[in-house]
UniProtKB/TrEMBL annotation:
Keywords: Membrane, Transmembrane, Transmembrane helix. InterPro entries: Bact_OuterMem_StrucFunc, OMP_bac, OmpA-like, OmpA-like_sf. This is OmpA family protein. It comes from Citrobacter portucalensis. GO terms for cellular component: cell outer membrane. The keyword Membrane applies. CDD domains: OmpA_C-like. The chain crosses the membrane at residues 7-25, 31-51, 311-333. Residues 415-499 form the OmpA-like domain. Its main location: membrane.
Length: 499
């Protein structure tokens, strides 16, 4: 589950970054492309790695699958490591008691797999998990090996905090044979806040007793001596391990006096002989050791955030950063829009309209700006100008006022050229270019029409009869045109430059 949450965070980061680059940033296309490549190079390896880790964890869970408490379980969940065989002999690795739920841990590797399984399948139970180190001193004969076991468990508990939302409560529970044979089970608890050992089975605290001889006084003194020696021995055994840089200490020490199987020449026996020269009495060992249910209420509740809460927090932080950067980009884009529109307005107002062409071009630009802003007003502004910072609406009225306060002058109408047709047969004889008699009336009518439109460029053109080859025909046509031009110039006072 942690790997899936990591994948979700990678995907969310990549999506928000790409949306920020292509939806809000005022950068050029080339820069956006470079940032896109960088984002993909950063996110894709993380997603692939997280997916592979998730696949490996799924296969590991299938190999070390342990029945877990239901998600609705409200009691403590205790991972029992160390000498847990006498607790689960004949039982399954998952056992529910009246006060809590105990899960058997066979090795440090199994512990990591079990913690991952809980984080993946029961994330709601993470705050209820504690780790109990079960210790039966009368089953150990090698002190160095025992120290190594304690150190290895402290180390693996420290490593598990990444899945358990912090270091879980780590507590010690010892089972010893009672100093008196066939005695009922006795529980004693010591917390870091208490200077004295408390009895969890109805006995008073171990305070000074009166000097009066009584069975109760003898009973108390016997257990007090036994506990004092046990705490001293535990301090000696774990003294070397406490100097290592591992931020894990026993949150609770629990001692149970009950019948337990022993080994010959065990550590506890050697310690008692060294202290008292007496050998502890042996008793008949039961099939199972009792669970420390009486100690569970003494465990402190954890206040750390769950993995789901951390994921929600990280996602919220990413979304908050995205919203902040998107608003900054939107503000920059809106300021750019305002600046460009104001520049167009200033340029338009600075032009006098003489000549009219520059101001007409500036007015057309204002019309395009107004049409764009009106379209955004009707259909919604683009994403890059959104986030509640859009300023285009207040730019529309100034543009409309500027467009309507000046009109371009009307262009003069251009009259299309008119053609006056002259019949060459009424002006010239066949093959001649000199005007014949009687042609004056036709020419005067044409000259009157031409003088009614002064300033026109007069073009005289035409073709002649086919009287020879092409060159002769062209020359005849040119001569006839010159004759008409000369007559019109001499008679109608038409300047030669216009002929």
């Amino acid at each position: 589950m942690a790997q899936l949450r990591g994948i979700v965070n990678y995907v969310l980061t990549a999506v928000l970054a790409l949306l920020l680059v292509w939806g809000f940033s005022p950068l050029s296309t080339g820069v956006r492309g470079g940032l896109t490549v960088f984002i993909l190079l950063f996110s894709i390896p993380g997603i692939v790695y997280g997916w592979r880790q998730y696949g490996q964890l799924r296969s590991a869970h299938s190999e070390h699958e342990v029945p877990l408490p239901p998600e609705s379980f409200s009691g403590p969940v205790v991972l029992v490591c160390g000498d847990n065989a006498p607790l689960f002999a004949g039982r399954s690795g998952s056992c529910e008691s009246s006060q809590g739920w105990y899960l058997s841990v066979q090795s440090p590797e199994h512990y990591i797999a079990l913690v991952r399984q809980i984080a993946a399948q029961r994330p709601g139970l993470l705050m209820r998990v504690s780790v109990m180190l079960a210790l039966t001193p009368e089953r150990h004969t090698d002190e160095d090996a025992l120290k190594h076991i304690l150190l290895s468990w402290r180390r693996v508990v420290t490593q598990s905090r990444r899945w358990l939302s912090g270091v879980p409560p780590f507590w010690l529970c010892c089972w010893l044979n009672s100093p008196q044979c066939n005695e009922a089970v006795r529980w004693f608890i010591r917390t870091p806040q208490d200077a004295e050992v408390q009895s969890a089975t109805g006995l008073d605290d171990f305070a000074p007793f009166s000097s009066q001889e009584s069975p109760a006084r003898h009973f108390h003194l016997t257990h007090a001596v036994w506990l004092d020696n046990l705490l001293g021995w535990l301090k000696k055994v774990q003294g070397d391990t406490e100097h290592h840089a591992l931020p894990v200490f026993f949150a609770l020490r629990v001692v149970c006096f009950t019948s337990s199987a022993v080994c010959e020449n065990n550590l506890w026996q050697r310690h008692i002989i060294a202290q008292t020269t007496l050998s502890p009495a042996a008793s008949v060992a039961p099939a199972l050791l009792p669970f420390p249910d009486l100690a569970l209420p003494f465990l402190s509740r954890r206040r750390a955030l769950t993995a789901f809460q951390r994921t929600v927090g990280v996602s919220g932080l990413l979304c908050g950063i995205f919203i902040g950067m998107a608003m900054a980009c939107s503000f920059i884009n809106n300021q750019h829009l305002i600046r460009i529109t104001n520049d167009h307005l200033m340029l338009y107002r600075q032009l006098s309209g003489n000549p009219a062409e520059p101001k007409i071009l500036a007015q057309d630009q204002l019309r395009r700006d107004a049409q764009l802003l009106e379209r955004w007003y009707q259909r919604g502004e683009p994403l890059s100008l959104s986030m509640g910072l859009y300023q285009g609406m207040r730019l529309i009225p100034p543009l409309q006022v500027a467009i309507s306060d000046w009109g371009s002058p009307e262009k003069p109408k251009v009259t299309a050229p008119q053609t006056v047709r002259l019949d060459s047969m009424s002006l010239f004889d066949t093959g001649k270019w000199a005007l014949k008699a009687g042609s004056t009336k036709v020419l005067i009518g044409a000259l009157v029409n031409i003088k009614a439109k002064p300033g026109w460029l007069i073009v005289i053109a035409g073709h002649t009869d086919d009287v020879g080859d092409d060159k002769s025909n062209q020359l005849l046509s040119l001569k006839r045109a010159e004759s008409v031009r000369d007559w019109m110039r001499d008679t109608g006072d038409v300047a030669r430059k216009n002929s």
